[in-house]
Amino acid sequence: MTDKSTQPRVLIFDTTLRDGEQSPGATMTHEEKLEIAALLDEMGVDIIEAGFPIASEGDFAAVSEIARRAKNSTICGLARANFKDIDRCWEAVKHARSPRIHTFIGTSPLHRAIPNLDMDQMAERIHDTVSHARNLCDNVQWSPMDATRTEHDYLCRVVEIAIKAGATTINIPDTVGYTYPFESAKIIRMLLDRVPGADTITFATHCHNDLGMATANALAAVEAGARQIECTINGLGERAGNTALEEVVMAMKVRNDILPYRTGIDTTKIMHLSRRVSTVSGFPVQFNKAIVGKNAFLHESGIHQDGVLKNVETFEIMRPEDIGLTQKNIAMGKHSGRAALRAKLKELGYDLADNQLNDVFVRFKALADRKKEVYDDDILALVADEQTND
Ligand code: KIV
Ligand code: ZN
């Protein structure tokens, strides 16, 4: 067994309450935000991005209160690249035991055109705003928004400026979910190779899921040297969402042989958080969502059911208990076989003789053809019928 306690740590930065809440329709109440933040803090999230304090009075109040209440996590607020945003952010996070200011500006050609800054003017703005944040707080994160569509030479230049101005974490956002795993890794490697001072700060990866690669892109960045993953519960986030916390954390746990890093996450709290975030955001989790979907640990086909009944590892790469799930892993339906029916009957307290089992199985199959899922009560009714007919 590998001794994981000596492995390097990858920090988990959760932005469910900021980037996640930015999904259209995912707005949470003040109380709901406090509840989610408390659960994230308890689960071992290293940094909670609690909101965007200048965005509204409500966001400011939530970030301030979360900062006051957090027991373990660093509390971070988001600020655009101007002094007013940064000051407001500091006013909210300063109550935390461990506060962080996260400031950002779009550095790609498309994003530079919006404030109408040329490359030199933007470089100066980055220097001034990061220095200002650093004068307020000794934990400053800086993000070149749309980094994956920023010219590489310019990206290296602005990252160097931000480090010199005092940023302690440099986050590389794939804002529009445009990158590929090998490109995500290449960018981190390039920054580590080319930027003076890159070895003195932490690189973070922040991926969106527009092409369905957010988890792969985040893990590739870690492989290349990033040591902070930005993610959300259930992958909640604008458009197709962000990297899902449960996916990167479980991927590093299950395939620790491939990516030998540890996180501080208590994975047994994942399922509860997933359900709470789904409820308070109003965003249902798709049935076949990796890790937390309703079907993620369910087996219906006869071959799979037979396999897991003999040795659970035949079709399960992780245990439901690892994420705090206690549900049974067998779904009874038309693909289920005799072995699964026998096991289900045993669980319900019946040990039928072979001929009775055969009869019940025939009727079970006929029922399963009509119904999507056959519940315990349906099976009990079939047994009662069988016993009456005997
Ligand atoms: O996706 C993004 O670029 C962001 C930044 C604000 C970090 O969320
Ligand atoms: Zn984002």
TrEMBL record:
Question: Origin organism of this chain?
Answer: Paragemmobacter ruber
| Enzyme Commission code(s) on record | 2.3.3.13
Top-rank lineage group of the source organism? Bacteria
**In its keyword annotation, does this UniProt entry include Acyltransferase?**
yes
State the pathway, as annotated in the record.
Amino-acid biosynthesis; L-leucine biosynthesis; L-leucine from 3-methyl-2-oxobutanoate: step 1/4
The EC class name is transferase
Q: Where does Mn(2+) bind?
A: 19, 206, 208, 242
An example molecular function term from Gene Ontology annotations: 2-isopropylmalate synthase activity
Reaction(s) this enzyme catalyzes, per UniProt: 3-methyl-2-oxobutanoate + acetyl-CoA + H2O = (2S)-2-isopropylmalate + CoA + H(+)
Report the function annotation for this chain: Catalyzes the condensation of the acetyl group of acetyl-CoA with 3-methyl-2-oxobutanoate (2-ketoisovalerate) to form 3-carboxy-3-hydroxy-4-methylpentanoate (2-isopropylmalate).
The entry describes its oligomerization and partners as: Homodimer.
Q: What is the official name of this protein in its record?
A: 2-isopropylmalate synthase
Q: Where is the Pyruvate carboxyltransferase domain?
A: 10-271
- Cofactor(s) this protein cannot do without: Mn(2+)
List the range of the whole protein covered here. Answer: 1 to 390 of 524
